[in-house]
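Sequence in, structure out.
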Amino acid sequence: MANYYPKCRSNYFAVKDPELFKLFCDLWNVDCWEEKGLYGFGVLGENGYPNYATIEVPKMCEGCERECFFCPCHNCEASNGCIDCPAEPEDDDEVAIYEFDCNDFENQLIAQLVDGHVAIIIEIGYEKFRYLNGYAVALNSKGERRLVNLDDIYKIASEIGTSITRAEY
């Protein structure tokens, strides 16, 4: 079985708080880029579109070293801790580990975008020469999303012909 090798990067866009964006990039293990007051990121190594991250949430959210922005309940300022927080530690545990997925990644990015700016994230990848893959996602501060996938070409091709084979083996 062959390995899949993805590459992923974004365009440049304005963020509300550059320091918070840098924390976001650190949490998701992506390289933060800045150019002319706009920010973007790239995923180096053998990872593609960010789809997994973890954060430690201290008991009762006291002493949390992360911005409350990243806490799953977004209410860390509560004096008695987070009520019904999905990341609240069990019993006597000192910290809880909360796992984020790609929806969390997108929602956290969306919350940081300046109105009118659109983050575009593109991933390409391949498995030997058997599969070539690519897609792009556009996100804005209103939470609107658009997706373009290279596989969409097969549906488009069916509009102009009937004999279509896939570009794979």
